[in-house]
Amino acid sequence: MKLPVVAVVGRPNVGKSTLFNRVIGRRVAIVDDQPGVTRDRNFAPADWAGRHFYIVDTGGVIEESDRPMDRFVREQAEAAIAEADVLVLVTDGKEGLHPLDQKVAEMLRSSGKPVVLAVNKMDNMPRDPAHHEFWELGLGEPHPVSAGSGKGSGDLLDRIIELMPESDAEPDDPTLVRVAVVGKPNVGKSSLVNRLFGEDRVVVSEEAGTTRDPVDSSMTYHGRTLVFVDTAGLRRQSRVKEDLEYYSYVRTERVVREADVCLMLIDATEGLTHQDLRIMEQAWDAGAGLVLVVNKWDLVEKDLRTADEMAKAMRERAPFLQWVPVLFASALTGQRARKTLELVLEVEEQRQRRIDTADVNEVLQRLVGRQPPPHSRGRPVKIRYGTQVGVAPPTFVLFSNLPKEVPAHYIRYIHNGFRDAWTFSGTPVRIFLRDSNSS
Questions:
Q1: CA 128: distance to chain centroid?
Q2: Which tens digits make up the pLDDT trace of 124-167?
Q3: Quick one: how far is CA 78 from the chain centroid?
Q4: 5-163: which CATH architecture?
Q5: Of the N and C termini of the chain, which has fewer Cβ atoms inside 10 Å?
């Protein structure tokens, strides 16, 4: 997908994320009065006047700061500028021209790329002439806008579209696999993403909770477009205290629900925790494929705990894990990190797998013949036939004369029989009962 890229940049707390959300029409980037909320590059597809493009939200640039986090954020903004076709400099019309605006403007001018100057927080436009002050930046006409209310955003987008290179690409990609990288804070999610891409796509810090927004990064692997979403670490709700962290938690849960495959990272030195299980159950219940990555494997004494022993212990804690591939890896050293890409494609293939109706009924009749459903209050319960009605995840409907009387343990028996026949590695399998008399 060679869609044009628009990068939104500026100093902290000028409303970049609010403008980003306004353009895409939904709340993806977290917005808060506290400056410095956005730390990573945040990608999303957008469209205006029939043109499709990617818009990139960046953290607030503090040019003269040598604080490690400020330096990381500045590097991320610089990377977004390098990738972009059009740059949007967002300034604050309420506060007026700021020395940092001059610094960022100089950085954008040196890129040689087209720049659109947006003067945000102009809630009283067109009566308020404060935006004219920003002519001084030497970036051309300042465009007054109120990202919060949407005033002026149409004119701003019109100007952005004028400067974008021509592209006939559409955002729909049948080869796309959306991969959510999930896990508790500080288990190495961002490190794994950076390792897979061979560059620092997201901020990595010893400080837990560095990633707050879900951050998208895409690659092509074996003909498939993999979009990795590095999410904020999910922790128990009782520990989610700050409003900002709560919204990160909610955003991450939504990413898990929308993912095709979830890469679940756990810390090899801690083992599988109750919170890890809760996150995996959430992904499994949402119908996502699942790959369990035991990260920091390089830190484990192999003579004390082998991979087989650890995998067996984890699968004993949750029955569904017997169907989930487990990979022991190290994002730091790169040990087996690339294997995650192969497993993602394998799991997605299983998630999209479709079984012929004849094969479904052959296996179903063999299972029913071996172990018929138990009677219900003296009445025979029959399962007459079945068919697959959907994929992602594979979904089957079984037709019975008494569908409400088929016990849960018997549905599990059928489920396990289907697994034995077709594996469906890494993906949930759903089975529903329907009345054969009304079919």
A1: 40
A2: 877 788 899 999 999 999 999 999 899 999 999 999 999 998 76
A3: 23
A4: 3-Layer(aba) Sandwich (3.40)
A5: C
